[in-house]
Structure formats: structure tokens, C-alpha cells
Amino acid sequence: MSPLLIRKPGELRELSRRWRKEGEIVGLVPTMGALHEGHLSLVRRAREECGKVVVSVFVNPTQFGEGEDFERYPRDLERDRRLLGEAGCDAVFAPAVEDMYGGGTTDLSSGERVFVEAGRLGELWEGEERPGHFRGVCTVVAMLFNAAEPDRAYFGEKDYQQLKVIQKMVRELLFGVEVVPCPTVREPDGLALSSRNAYLSPQERRAAGALWRALEAAAERARSGERDARRLERTMEEVCRAEPLVRLQYVAVVDAETLERLGALGDRPARALIAAHVGETHLIDNAAL
User: Fold this and answer.
1) Which end of the chain has a smaller Cβ tally under 10 Å, C or N?
2) pLDDT digits (tens, 9 = 90+) for 130-148
3) What is the rounded CA–CA span in Å between residue 118 and residue 128?
4) Catalytic residue among 39, 133, 277, 282
5) Quick count: other Cβ atoms within 10 Å of Cβ 23?
6) pLDDT band at 109 (very low <50, low <70, confident <90, very high)
7) Residue 123 to residue 135: CA distance in whole angstroms
8) Spatial CB neighbours of 273, under 8 Å, sequence gap ≥ 6
9) Listed residues 128, 148, 182: the one ending a domain
10) Pairing of strands 246-255, 270-278
């Protein structure tokens, strides 16, 4: 059955309130469309845990920087809607940019708009590589929460820094939404599923597997007793240097909550982060240590 298609934030809010008045638990899965099995795993998890499931399909301009791929980001709403129906989604929220931001500027640095700032956590790693990115992410997720008024929201661990930023925003701004982390879904060679994988040529696609091999090599060394974070980072760098098409942006061993770089593994959970350009495509991944 095809899910209901909603374009206006007010219509989504009205629907969600009706569902909740009927005693339903409402789950939200925010996406930018171009859906793959990673997204669909979030939808199926929400389907298992919630009475009603909303999936947003919105390519958000405020999280793209100058020269990034906003214009060419893949869009196919009919395909997405069909896949969502098969996964058990009840409603697809697919607003136009004007529905979310009105007719004004979408430049959050212009001083003309209210926005949500991600703080120190949003300045690290991806925030340094893509200035303003997490400002756009926090702002649009806050808008989606206000439109959908969900009980739960589902985010993949593939975008680990985004997950941590959203969890912190929800906690500190008292949103009252339960953020549910979900495991990364991978290709057989370990590459994390991403809508941007479609940009990769066959040669680049083969080279992209180096990101997961690098993370796995670091994790294996950690399991074998290596505690020195810099040695673990060098292990990741060495794996990626063997692939000429992979241009590293950063590797880091970090505290799993604060994302601050560690000198050594200790009692607190740690995470390995990696980002690279494979050809012209920006890819990120992470693994628990």
C-alpha cells in the first residue's frame, strides 16, 4: 500500500497529533531520499517499535556548503515512496524548500534567519571539513521534530557525528524525543551504504572498500591490546595510502561521546572515525573500538 504523501508541515503536525490522540506511538525517520537498504532498515525498526511511521524525504539546502552536491544530489520520490510502502511506512513527508524555509534566504550565515547552532561538537571533524554543515543539520532536524512531533526518531550510526550532535541537541533543548541509534548497513566488502556511493565509478567503488578495511585493521589492533591512539590512527592511514584513489581527509580515535581526540584507549568507549575523498566523492565511516 502506498504511504500517504504530505507536503506541508502543518498537515503533518495535524496528522501526528491525531495519531497520538488515538494512542499511537509515532516514529520519524529523517532522510534526504535516494533511499537504500540502510534507510530502509531504519524504517523497518521504526515499524517494529511504533504504531505509526513517518519518513521525511527532503534534500536540505542549509546543510550543503558552497560547491557541494546539493543540485546533483539524487532525487527520485516515486521510487522512494514505493520502497517506503514496502517497508511499512504510513506517511511520507516531502516538502518543497519553500514549505520549510518560506521564500527567504536559506543562507543561515546571512543573519536573517533563526537557526540552531551545534556548538563545539559540531565544529570537530565533519564540522571542520564542512563549515556550517551541522548548523544546517540541527536546524532542519529541529524543524522536522516540530512538524512531526514524534515520540521516537531513528538515525543510523553511519553518520556517527550527526547522531551525537542530534542526541546532544535533543537532550539540551528538551525536545522530548527518544533518539534511537541504528547499526550501519554495509556492502559485502564492508563499504557503508550511502546515497553518495552512486557517484563512484567502478574503479572508485573498489577503492572505497579501503575505508572499512582501515577501520577493521585499527579495531583488530585494539582487540589485540594496542592502546596507543596514534598508532591506531597510523594503521588506518597506512591502509588508505595503499589505494591511490583514496585521499584521506582525517582519521581519528576519539571519545565515543565527546568526539574529542584521545591519546590512548581507556575505560570510556572509543570510536575510530575516517573521512576521505574517493575520486570526487566525500565518504565517511566509523567503528567502535
Assistant:
1) N
2) 999 999 999 999 999 999 9
3) 12
4) 39
5) 7
6) confident
7) 10
8) 125, 160, 161, 250, 251, 252, 253, 254, 259, 284, 285, 286
9) 182
10) antiparallel
Give me the helix-helix angle, 77-87 and 37-49, nearest 10°.
Answer: 40
Could you give the CA distance from residue 65 to residue 120 in angstroms, rounded to a whole number? 19
33 annotated as ligand-binding: yes
To the question of whether residue 203 is assigned a binding role by annotation, the answer is no
Domain that holds residue 247: 195-288
The phi and psi torsions of 21 (rounded to 5 degrees) equal -65, -30
Is 32 a known ligand-binding residue? Answer: yes
Kindly report the average pLDDT of the chain as a whole number.
96
Q: Is 38 annotated as ligand-binding?
A: yes
Enumerate helices (H) and strands (E) in the chain, giving the number of each. 9, 9
Question: Following DSSP, what letter does each residue of 232-255 receive, concatenated?
Answer: HHHHHHHHHHT-TTEEEEEEEEEE
- 70/65 Cα distance (integer angstroms): 8
| Domain CATH for 152 | 3.40.50.620
Q: What is the pLDDT of residue 219?
A: 98
pLDDT digits (tens, 9 = 90+) for 36-90: 999 999 999 999 999 999 999 999 999 999 889 999 999 999 999 999 999 999 9
Q: Residue 39 catalytic?
A: yes
Whether 124 has a binding-site annotation, put simply, is no
Domain end (from 159, 182, 205) = 182
Give this prediction's pTM. Answer: 0.96
CA–CA distance, 138 with 257 (Å, rounded to integer): 17
156 annotated to bind ligand: yes
